[in-house]
Design a protein that fits this description.
Mean pLDDT: 94
Structural class: alpha+beta
Helix content: 25-40%
Low-confidence stretches: none
Radius of gyration: 16 Å
Order of helices and strands: EHEHEEHEHE
Shape: elongated
Largest sheet: 6 strands, antiparallel
Number of helices: 4
């Protein structure tokens, strides 16, 4: 079973703000731009129990500055950008060995950009600025 986790900031995201300004300077007009760290966990066991536990792991979600979501309800085009090797063996080791969270088989990481614009503009913004085709891939969610 796959559990997706989206981690956002409680405070304004300066990376998203700077990216939006850069897109504007490239004549790509995005009304709103949000960024979330993305984690996909392949697990064995109870999903609800796992979600409760993983949302409180400070390595992933700092309760003082982050919010944890298990689905994105925001309107807009959602683009997932991740490294071609996408898997995070070091995070998997930390979670399973150091923090002793049982049942995790695989962890995939990335960044989700939520853009308030047309699908075509979202693809253009992604290909021109948000990902590097030499070591990353993207997909529309």
């Amino acid at each position: 079973m796959i559990v997706e986790l989206f981690v956002g900031l409680k405070i304004p995201d300066t990376t998203a703000l700077t990216t939006k300004q850069t897109l504007e300077s490239m004549n790509l007009h995005v009304k709103n731009l949000q960024r979330y760290d993305y984690y996909a966990f392949e697990i064995r066991g109870d999903q609800k129990q796992f979600e409760k536990k993983i949302a409180s792991v400070d390595v992933i979600v700092n309760a003082n500055k982050n919010i944890a979501l298990f689905s994105l309800q925001q309107k807009g085009i959602k683009v997932l950008v991740k490294n071609l090797d996408g898997h995070s063996e070091s995070l998997l080791y930390t979670l399973t060995e150091r923090l002793e969270i049982k049942g995790i088989v695989k962890v995939t990481r990335g960044v989700v950009w939520v853009m308030d614009c047309s699908k075509e503009m979202a693809v253009e913004a992604t290909t021109l600025l948000l990902y590097n085709p030499n070591f990353q891939e993207y997909q529309l969610l």
